[in-house]
């Protein structure tokens, strides 16, 4: 293990070691005996005497391999320990060993109550996750699929947003998979291998369930706060709720991040003078949420919400239900699509609603079209052009600055690889298997390997039948809520800021009527909504 700065295996003082072991239970392990097997839920092991070795188990064509060994005064674990992920490596005693076992709940207490020790441990868990990406541990989760398929990209996006140690193997269109244990047809793709065991036609939901990232009945019981949606507003709400003592769960239909995770660069977010990618911002926020004890479940699609006198119940698409004393709806919005022939055909391979390094790998150096007139479209055009792609930016309005920040307008005007088509519309898509050209009404056909679509969103509120919404589907809150409703007369109070027409149910971010539709504003709304939650739970 290369650990030049001591981040992966930090040395602990006597006082730090004493505090870390204070809540841990002693355990003797004979040589060769396993403390944890791959696929198990696992605690943190604190080695007092002997050695624990982490082992990648044998998988068909691969023999067993010792990945790393932990000696006295060291502790095991990586970020998966905090969010309930099942172990992807086995842990066994290399020699007769004495350890102390620290439960996940007690580890969270250490992180919450001991700033010095908590920061040291959290940084080590994060550093180990980064170190494992390029080592043998990455083969314990492997995705194989057609490089341009929507299903394969969904798996990769899910793994990257959840910061999972994994390997992805892209295949050419029409190429099948030859495997030492079995040959897989194109119709079997994508295949996910977890500990060498194949899952055919894998989806993020199935993979999450196998890894322990999806919700299981009885996991949480009755919590103080349930947040639906894992974008900036939802993550901010979860972080502030949990850090202020509320037991908190976060449900996300896909993976943490929402539209923000699809943003290549945010330059006007407070505290980042050199800009920050959406992926980095969301990754740090998710880690922060987990640090404070938020249980993040994804993919978990909410399909209904009902409210009783003392509890809120959200039912999931698989029939399971989660109950809480309060809820914040931050489910964001879904991407709009252009009503063009063959959209469905190309959406599986060449139409994207995000511009991140993952999509860049599919189009690097090729001409592309970006459609949209707001910040997300401008950021995508700049990201793609600065990485070598000639970009046609198609904007329906004639004034690029009408909906886009001026710093983006200025940079776009100075970028030679961006060709702006203002006052224009896309009228047709052309190509055989893959997209080859896009027709623009003011310019004719332009060569394009891909189309990046940022034409707005529709609020993801169709599952909220009992909540008052405006004609566009955005949720009314606070002073916009009709005070004549019987429930408010019965309570004898007015709706609080961010509170919906259902008491103790709040809304924040893009889903809320009147919201600013910016990342920083969403963060502010999510954290501010928690203040109202405290008032109703007091």
Automatic annotation (TrEMBL):
Decide whether keyword Transferase is in the record: no
Q: Which reaction does it catalyse?
A: [thioredoxin]-dithiol + NADP(+) = [thioredoxin]-disulfide + NADPH + H(+)
Give GO MF terms, alphabetically.
Answer: thioredoxin-disulfide reductase (NADPH) activity
**Does Zinc count among this protein's keywords?**
no
UniProt KW keywords: Flavoprotein, Oxidoreductase
Q: What CDD domains does the record point to?
A: CAP_ED
Q: Which InterPro entries match?
A: cNMP-bd_dom (IPR000595), cNMP-bd_dom_sf (IPR018490), FAD/NAD-bd_sf (IPR036188), FAD/NAD-binding_dom (IPR023753), Ferredoxin-NADP_redctase_2 (IPR050097), RmlC-like_jellyroll (IPR014710)
Cyclic nucleotide-binding domain: residues covered: 8-111
PROSITE patterns named among the record's database cross-references:
CNMP_BINDING_3 (PS50042)
Stated name of the protein: Cyclic nucleotide-binding domain-containing protein
């Amino acid at each position: 293990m290369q650990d030049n700065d001591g981040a992966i295996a930090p040395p602990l003082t006597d006082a730090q070691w004493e505090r870390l072991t204070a809540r841990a239970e002693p355990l003797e392990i004979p040589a060769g005996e396993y403390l944890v097997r791959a696929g198990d839920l696992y605690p943190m092991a604190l080695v007092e005497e002997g050695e624990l070795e982490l082992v990648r188990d044998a998988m068909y064509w691969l023999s067993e391999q010792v990945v790393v060994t932990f000696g006295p005064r060291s502790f095991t674990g990586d970020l998966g320990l905090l969010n309930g992920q099942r172990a992807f490596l086995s842990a066994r005693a290399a020699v007769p060993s004495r350890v102390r076992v620290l439960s996940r709940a007690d580890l969270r207490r250490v992180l919450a109550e001991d700033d010095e020790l908590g920061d040291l441990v959290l940084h080590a868990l994060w550093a180990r996750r980064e170190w494992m990406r390029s080592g043998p541990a990455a083969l314990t989760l492997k995705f194989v699929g057609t490089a341009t398929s929507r299903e394969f990209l969904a798996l990769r996006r899910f793994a990257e947003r959840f910061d999972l140690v994994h390997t992805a193997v892209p295949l050419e269109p029409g190429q099948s998979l030859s495997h030492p244990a079995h040959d897989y047809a194109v119709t079997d793709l994508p295949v996910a291998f977890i500990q060498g065991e194949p899952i055919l036609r894998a989806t993020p939901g199935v993979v999450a369930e196998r890894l322990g990232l999806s919700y299981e009945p009885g996991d949480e019981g009755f919590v103080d706060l349930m947040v639906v949606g894992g974008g900036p507003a939802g993550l901010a709400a979860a972080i502030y709720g949990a850090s202020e003592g509320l037991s908190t769960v976060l449900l996300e239909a896909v993976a943490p991040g929402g539209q923000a995770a699809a943003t290549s660069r945010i330059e006007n977010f407070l505290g980042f003078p050199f800009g920050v990618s959406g992926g980095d911002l969301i990754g740090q926020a998710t880690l922060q949420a987990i640090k404070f004890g938020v249980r993040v479940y994804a993919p978990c699609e909410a399909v209904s919400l009902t409210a009783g006198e003392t509890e809120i119940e959200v039912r999931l698409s698989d029939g399971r239900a989660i109950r809480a004393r309060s809820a914040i709806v931050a489910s964001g919005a879904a991407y709009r699509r252009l009503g063009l022939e063959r959209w469905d055909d190309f959406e599986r391979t060449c139409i994207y609603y995000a511009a991140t390094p993952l999509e860049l790998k599919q189009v690097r150096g090729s001409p592309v079209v970006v459609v949209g007139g707001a910040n997300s479209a401008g950021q995508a055009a700049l990201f793609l052009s600065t990485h070598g792609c000639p970009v046609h930016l198609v904007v329906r309005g004639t004034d690029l600055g009408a909906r886009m920040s001026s710093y983006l307008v200025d940079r776009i005007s100075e970028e030679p690889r961006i060709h702006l088509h203002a006052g224009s519309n896309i009228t047709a898509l052309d190509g055989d298997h893959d997209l080859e050209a896009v027709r623009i009404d003011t310019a004719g056909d332009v060569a394009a390997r891909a189309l990046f679509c940022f034409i707005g969103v529709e609020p993801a509120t169709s599952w909220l039948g009992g909540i008052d919404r405006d004609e566009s589907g955005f949720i009314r809150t606070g002073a916009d809520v009709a005070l004549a409703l019987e429930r408010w007369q019965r309570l004898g109070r007015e709706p609080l800021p961010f509170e919906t027409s259902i008491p103790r149910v709040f809304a924040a971010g893009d889903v809320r009527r009147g919201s600013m539709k910016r990342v920083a504003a969403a963060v502010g709304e999510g954290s501010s909504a928690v203040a109202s939650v405290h008032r109703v739970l007091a």
